Prior knowledge:
Elements (H helix, E strand, L loop, with lengths): L8 H6 L2 H6 L2 H21 L6 H9 L6 H11 L2 H12 L13 H37 L4 E6 L2 E7 H25 L13 H6 L4 H14 L16 H29 L3 E2 L19 H16 L1 H8 L10 H27 L2 E2 L1 H15 L1 H10 L4 H22 L5 H6 L8 H6 L10 H19 L13
Helix pairs in contact: 3-7, 3-10, 5-6, 7-8, 7-14, 7-20, 8-11, 8-20, 11-12, 11-13, 11-14, 12-14, 16-17
Amino acid sequence: MSTDRYASPLSERYASREMQYIFSQDKKFRTWRRLWIALAETEKELGLDITDEQIQQMREHQDDINYDVAREREKVVRHDVMSHVYAYGLQCPKAKPIIHLGATSCYVGDNTDIIIMREGLELIKKKLVNVIAQLARFAEEYKDLPTLAFTHFQPAQPTTVGKRATLWAQEFLMDLEDLEYVKGSLKLLGSKGTTGTQASFLELFDGDQEKIDKIDPMIAKKMGFEECYPVSGQTYSRKVDTRVCNVLAGIAASAHKMSNDIRLLQHLKEVEEPFEKTQIGSSAMAYKRNPMRSERIASLSRYVMVDALNPAITSAVQWFERTLDDSANKRLSIAEGFLATDGILDLCLNVTDGLKVYPKVIEKRLRSELPFMATENIMMDAVKAGGDRQELHEKIRTLSMEAGRNVKEEGKENNLLELIAADPSFNLTLEELQKTMQPEKYTGRAAIQVEHFVNDVVNPVLERNKDLLGVKAEINV
């Protein structure tokens, strides 16, 4: 490994080898050659003077790319596509005259970008489905475990640990819907020429409109797509990149929300992310168990959410049929958006697969707040015993404030039940009040909601994507 030049943390630390290959030079230039073969085959099938021997020679050298020749040529001509046309032509001397025939640079560049983004989305989808599956299993396992819920990060009516996990899963399901829609809408650019008018093909095919109309559909089919965008300038609309990166940003936002919740729960010592036996939490404080993976999810997620601005701005400032100010930005923003999202999902897979739950801590915190949550039920019981609802409401409010002061100012335990039992207006004993302190009585339909959500919403999605299940993530650092 070279240590004397910049190396991207995305490739060194975060993204999987699989995603890195999708955005590798090798993948890119092999795809260029596949596209050149598809173009030559299409042109031959439509009647141009191209031989089987020429196409066979192109196929023989599809994958053994002579990078050294292409690099040296690019130093001379300052054009990456023409450098690779030249290098391919040296390997295929018989096919040299017909390589890239009638095409412009965006024929290989833009079509390859679409192909790579689609493959990237397929890998993202696979990992996203597995995150959803793991959250569903976690939700089912803990659907009945009461826990203190929070609004404004202040104690609120109880929920269950499993129900909280469904909130995370539901957002990832929304992301999956968006991903599937955008991925399904991707089309190739096709071969439309310098300004999108296919003028070069009018010349090649002597103005035969019927044959020219067949070029894009035939290329699309050979490359595994249903169709090409019906109109374009020299490039496909950069709005396509915006839509794709918005999907990635949505996944990042969902992951960020989940990771924040886990970080807060780890502070409360209720739920922890996985922690290895030899892992060091702090260089100074040996006892610490920092939620470093969840923190990394949040960190990478912020990058992806901000990165989505790049293609949006690029799309907005494209002049007429094309400008080249998209190129450098696009090389960075698209690849890094995918690599970072891949790293985020690997972390999500690791974290959700090994969440550690501490029921005793959860119960202790819940019971410390439960008397406040139970006041409405207590008031109803007191009314049944002959009390006045309005009078009791004011008394409970006053006693709750007193119990709160005892906890916050004097560090005492919550003594609200003792205060209520001592007030004759309620006509309830401490023993009767303590019987109401059953956490499961205050979680509403949380457990049933988990069952319905998993069975009716998640499981059909997992069944449709069962071939993608079983993915585990390897975290490098």
